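All the exercises in this workshop are built on plain-text protein records. There is nothing in a record beyond a sequence line and a structure line. A learned vocabulary of local backbone shapes supplies the integers on the structure line. The question running through the whole workshop is how a given chain folds. Here is such a record, shown just as it appears in the course material:

***
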Amino acid sequence: MYRQGLFVFRALCVQDSLCPELFVSIKPPTLCYNCPMKIIFPEIATNPIAIEAIKSFPDIDFLPATSLGEAAKQLASGVADSMLSGLDYPSRDVLIAYKNHLPLKSDFFSSCFICQKSNTVFALADGGVNKLPTKEQLYTTVKDTAITFRAYTGETPRIAMLSYSTHGSGGKNPDLEKIYYTIEKIHQNHPDYLIDGEMQLDAAINPRVAAKKVPDSPIKGTANVLIVPDLNSGNILYKSLEQFAGFTCAGPIIQGFEMPLADLSRGSTTEDIVLTIKVLRSLL
């Protein structure tokens, strides 16, 4: 395994030229070959579900912490590669700790769930962060969720932009304009991704329905990345997959930061946590 330490640089731009002497490295580079991955998991000291889950990963060093703020600061200092929490903390507190102490690499942060049942795997976003995403937030969510899905599965993302409407069947709506903006920008910047929308869930994942409703769709009813229009629908859909359909759901995986992060549900099972750690490991 090869990992490089985190850098933070500051520069002053004068007449479109960067001044090299003003670059400052806050933390020197570190190289690590065959080092064990380190994940900060505050609850491992006291929560029996966390203690049981980490037994599946003897090759990973798990570090406790006394608070979310302390954990995030430790991660920012470079002592670990990743962090997950949430078994004993509300999501709001976990996200605030991440936001206050950790650097972003995307324009916005978002979340996705990796939902798995046997050999069936979906990524679902955003069910944990953005209540009513702007078009720019929606694009960033799609881009980062595709990266998460590909890292974990190795498959090409087939992205469905979910809606009450399929290819204009529901009339005009401002929410649909955000979807069209996102699709166009994905086509421009990530032409290898298959994306379509807007569409209803059955047209996204059922080839028979897709052949009738969207016969020209590039994903042909085989979507593996599901993007919802708002937090309400995303959270309800992921819990429906979990509670009604028997899927194990990792995360939410918190995307857009320099390091892989997760915010567990307080209702997470041992299986959920094991899958979450597997996804975090795939992102490093």
User: Anything to note?
Assistant: The two ends are 9 Å apart (CA to CA). DSSP finds nine helices and 14 strands in the chain.
